[in-house]
Structure formats: structure tokens, C-alpha cells
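pinned: reference chain
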Amino acid sequence: MRNKINIWHILAILVVSAGLLYLTQSWWMSLGILMLILLADAYIAMYQQRRDKDKEEEE
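pinned: its C-alpha cells
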């Protein structure tokens, strides 16, 4: 279960984290929100992998 990390994903995370830091003006609040976003991203990736695997087994 190895995920590919591309440059666009890293760039998007950096832009979102910079935007959060600008909007909240609090390092800890930005860090907490970013951790929730990364957790949601990981769950979405696991769901997509499971769905793709089920589709392959079905065919």
C-alpha cells in the first residue's frame, strides 16, 4: 500500500498551509487544521485504493 507522492500534491499542501497561517495568524491553529486535512486526505486515498481493488477483483 505505497502511495505515490508527486510535486503537485506537495505544492498544494504548502499553499494550503501558508494560506492557513495567513488567515488564522496562529501557528498552532494552522497546524491542527493541516493535520485534519492530511488525515482526511489519507482516508480518501485508502478508500480509493480499496474501491479500485474491489473493481479489479470484480472483473
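why pinned: The longest helix spans residues 27-58. Residues 16 and 39 are 14 Å apart (CA to CA).
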